[in-house]
Fold this sequence. Notes:
Layout: H1 17-31, H2 36-43, H3 47-54, H4 62-71, H5 78-88, H6 93-104, E1 107-112, H7 123-131, H8 138-147, E2 159-165, H9 166-170, H10 176-190, E3 196-200, E4 213-217, E5 224-227, E6 234-236, H11 239-255, H12 262-274
Parallel strand pairs: 1-2, 2-3
Antiparallel strand pairs: 1-4, 4-5, 5-6
Amino acid sequence: MSVETEETDPNDPTASPLVHFGREVRLERERLGLSRDDLKTAATCSYSLVAKIESGDRVPPREFAEACDRLFPHSNGRFLRLWPLALRYAFPPWFRRYVELEEKATVVRMFHPQLLPGIVQTTDYARAVLRASRPTNLEDLVTARIERQRILNRERPARLWLVLNESVLKYTVGDEQVMRGQLRHLRDLANVPHHRVQIIRDNGRYHGNASPFGILSFGEGSDVVHVDGFPRGYVLAEQEDVAAAQDAYDLLKAMAAPPDESADLIDSISKDCYS
């Protein structure tokens, strides 16, 4: 449950997009005389997830909304149209503007010195990272993070350029099994022709960037920069800030190993550290 809905009446369908989505699902299901088991089967999920979505306690995955539109004959795509509004409630308010920009981006450039960024995390890796802060809505946060990755698989996918410190691949998040799956996923991304993954080899030297940041580019309009941090990140759009970030990213790419070496290096680290 997001912070915005903690003090609202759970029976009020206007309390939040989550509550509204769940109420619409329940009303349509009951109108057709279907059980939660019927919906569970159609959506390939658990009974408890159906119950939590209907009560407004869980963010629905996109596949759930698609299943509702298939199962309910007169929905005319209504649940998939409502789904983005429900999904927004899994993101902290300060992060929602960035997600809106990320969805429109044609190129996503990212650097992270300690972790794989959310846009490339596996479900297990994301859950381990997010669990560390002990949130009350862990599964909603995981769902929202993984849903962001659809921009890499849509009809016209965003192009990803990722620069990482070598230590990121050696820093165990979760356990060895989690890391093997995460590095396999990263290796697969590195082999996609329109993506770029570069790794800065660990030579014991400080390369001048300690903060994670990203740059979004668009078909039209100027680039924007997102700087991650605690307690919240922020978006920069001033020309001077964007130019400084672009210059810093160019330097990081120059210090990193060529993209063609990434897959072999990832496999080597996976074998040495997690086999």
